[in-house]
Amino acid sequence: MESATNGPPLEILHAFGVSGVQEVLPGGKGGTWRVGDVVLKPSERAEESRWRAEALAMVQMSAEFRVPRPVPAADGSWLVDGWEAWRVAAGEPDTAWIDETVRAGCAFHVAVADLPRADFLDAPEDPWSYGDRVAWEEAPISGS
């Protein structure tokens, strides 16, 4: 995979059916790019990226929440050479809307409540995954 700091290569844009000016998006690790109404980013874990795309492609949207929709590649896959693509979700974050945020979270939970637990959640050994398991009392706190 080409460096995300250079933007997605032309072959990736073609695979996801997008063209135009690449704009690096702020935040994160600096490797997320917008091209028109599509956001492209390198996948950190392929299994997680595929699961997330499949799940969010099936979620029934409602007036109570919105999430970006995954963009399949021309061949129907969710990943191409380590890149994934998503439709832009309109709007801006606003931390003043606490009640609305909680309502949206509850509505989203209802929409995904029947999804089976993804197997990959128990596999990674990176610090963030381990911290999640400790927080949910699924793993003991280690002294290291």
Q: Can you give a write-up of this model?
A:
The model has no long low-confidence stretch (mean pLDDT 87). The chain has one domain. The protein is 30% helix and 10% strand. The two termini are 33 Å apart. It has a four-stranded antiparallel β-sheet, with no helix packed on it. By secondary structure, the chain is of the alpha+beta class. The chain is globular, with a radius of gyration of 17 Å.
The overall strand count is 4
The residue fraction in helices comes out at 25-40%
**Could you give the distance between the termini?**
33 Å
Q: Which class of secondary structure composition applies to the elements?
A: alpha+beta
Radius of gyration: 17 Å
Number of domains: 1
Categorize the overall geometry. Answer: globular
Strand order across the largest sheet: 1-2-3-4
Which percent band covers the strand fraction?
5-15%
Mean pLDDT metric? 87
Summarize the model shown.
The chain has one domain. It contains four helices and four strands. The chain has helices spanning 10-15, 46-58, 98-112, 127-135, and strands at residues 23-24, 33-35, 38-42, 83-87.
What keyword list fits this structure?
144 residues; alpha+beta; four-stranded antiparallel β-sheet; 4 helices
Present the secondary structure layout.
Blueprint: H1 10-15, E1 23-24, E2 33-35, E3 38-42, H2 46-58, E4 83-87, H3 98-112, H4 127-135
Antiparallel strand pairs: 1-2, 2-3, 3-4
